Inverse folding.
């Protein structure tokens, strides 16, 4: 026999009702995954009313649908998310009408107070030769603000006692120049192709975020990355405000969208004229017996930034400092971060590229 019988009021009260809304929202923000939060809405009327107030959201894309129809890349892949939502929200016999296009903004339309939004794609956009690894991180406002690109021809694990070709290693550490005529791994031309490919991928992803930014003016941080870690687009609060102000100016002017280019069927943000500092090492021996071959680091900055800052060209020392801040500012970690630190100590080569 229970010596402390529960009163009728205790039996009728749900334990969740005793948890304040603030604490539940804190839990929702930690969950962040939009699929999980959408399922939470079916738990109770209270959860259904609180989920749209979540401030931190993560959209994970499980699969990529073919883009042969000519629709936007991101709009296609997010349809896979909507299909799972359909089973939850609609009766099983009810089917969404075919031909309806759903945008990222439509998926997020029920959320009212988004502050931090992350979108994770299942894979990168680039198709590189076997063994090549490319990582990039781009920051945007209305257009490109900076981009750091790390490319490696191959990574291998070597025996610590096996020094390999010591002459080649010593020559590289003394600052061997990039072989502009081809170094057995494609030379300068290949590295420029890598750089352009990364910039096009970044600008295409930036353009696809346009609708979300316009409809959710409360967003203060926006990150778009892929699960494989190939590329990341970042927009902070300042960059988001700059983007919205630029859009308002274009809408007020009534003209065609500026800063927009088209490649085939896919629109992307135009890449401005840029200055690129490239560093290359034929071989890097890192901690743990890791060896990288054909490692290249490229730091990209728009030339317009220098003009706006006073019209004077920065010295190489100043640019080196900025390169270090951009490349080491959380862009890469682990073995890639170590490679970046090593490459920043190497000789750099300045390249310029017109807008495209």
């Amino acid at each position: 026999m229970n010596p402390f019988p529960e009163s009728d009021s205790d039996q009728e009260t749900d334990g969740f009702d005793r948890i304040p809304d603030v604490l539940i929202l804190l839990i929702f923000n930690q969950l962040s995954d939009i699929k999980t939060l959408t399922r939470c809405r079916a738990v109770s009327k209270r959860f259904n009313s609180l989920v749209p107030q979540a401030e931190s959201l993560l959209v994970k894309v499980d699969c990529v649908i073919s883009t042969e129809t000519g629709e936007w890349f991101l709009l296609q892949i997010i349809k896979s998310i909507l299909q799972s939502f359909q089973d939850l929200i609609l009766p099983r016999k009810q089917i969404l009408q075919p031909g309806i296009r759903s945008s990222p903004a439509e998926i997020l339309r029920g959320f009212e107070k988004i502050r931090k939004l992350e979108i994770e794609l299942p894979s990168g956009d680039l198709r590189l030769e076997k063994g090549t690894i490319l990582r990039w991180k781009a920051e945007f406002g209305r257009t490109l603000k900076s981009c750091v690109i790390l490319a490696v021809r191959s990574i291998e694990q070597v025996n610590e006692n096996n020094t390999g070709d010591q002459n080649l290693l010593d020559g590289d550490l003394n600052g061997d120049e990039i072989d502009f005529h081809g170094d057995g791994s494609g030379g300068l031309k290949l590295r420029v192709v890598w750089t352009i490919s990364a910039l096009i991928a970044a600008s295409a992803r930036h353009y696809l975020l346009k609708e979300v930014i316009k409809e959710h003016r409360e967003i203060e941080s926006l990150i778009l990355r892929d699960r494989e870690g190939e590329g990341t687009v970042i927009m902070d609060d300042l960059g988001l405000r700059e983007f919205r102000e630029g859009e308002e100016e274009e809408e007020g002017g009534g003209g065609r969208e500026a800063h927009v280019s088209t490649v085939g069927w896919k629109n992307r943000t135009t890449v401005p004229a840029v200055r690129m500092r490239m560093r290359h090492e034929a071989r890097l021996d890192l901690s743990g017996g890791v060896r990288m071959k054909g490692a290249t680091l490229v730091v990209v900055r728009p030339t317009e930034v220098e003009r706006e800052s006073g019209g004077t060209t920065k010295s190489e020392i100043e640019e080196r400092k900025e390169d270090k801040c951009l490349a080491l500012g959380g862009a890469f970690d682990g073995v890639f971060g170590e490679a970046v630190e090593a490459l920043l100590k190497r000789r750099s080569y300045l390249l310029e590229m017109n807008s495209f």
